[in-house]
Design a protein that fits this description.
The protein is an all-alpha fold. It has helices at 7-18, 25-43, 49-70, 77-95. It folds into two domains: 7-43; 46-95, no CATH class. Helices cover 75% and strands 0% of the residues. It is elongated. The chain starts with 6 loop residues before the first helix and ends with a helix.
Length: 96
């Protein structure tokens, strides 16, 4: 891929390269792109690979739950809520 830099962009890269912090112009560009990707990930965490993987995993679990429910494989709500309350109470007891 070829990229044409503006005069301002070229001056910035040359200045950075001359300051000695970068081995080459390509190195300065590589680091700038990594920093930009980090900034985007912080501003838009919903677009990070970890978040997208979590969304996909959650979708699969929901689909599996819907399929199980359609086949009559459902849990009793009272039992599920009782189990969740026990877990919450156990977690509170260990953190106190």
């Amino acid at each position: 891929m070829q990229i044409t830099l503006s005069a301002q962009q070229s001056k910035i890269l040359e200045s950075l390269s001359q300051q000695g912090g970068y081995r080459s112009l390509e190195n300065a560009i590589d680091i700038a792109l990594v920093l930009l990707a980090d900034e985007v990930a912080q501003q838009h965490p919903e677009e990070t690979p970890d978040y997208l993987a979590w969304v996909e995993q959650t979708r699969r679990k929901i689909d599996a739950g819907i399929q199980a429910a359609e086949q009559g494989e459902v849990l009793d709500a009272d039992n599920v809520l009782a189990q969740l309350r026990q877990k919450v109470n156990a977690a509170r007891a260990t953190s106190a």
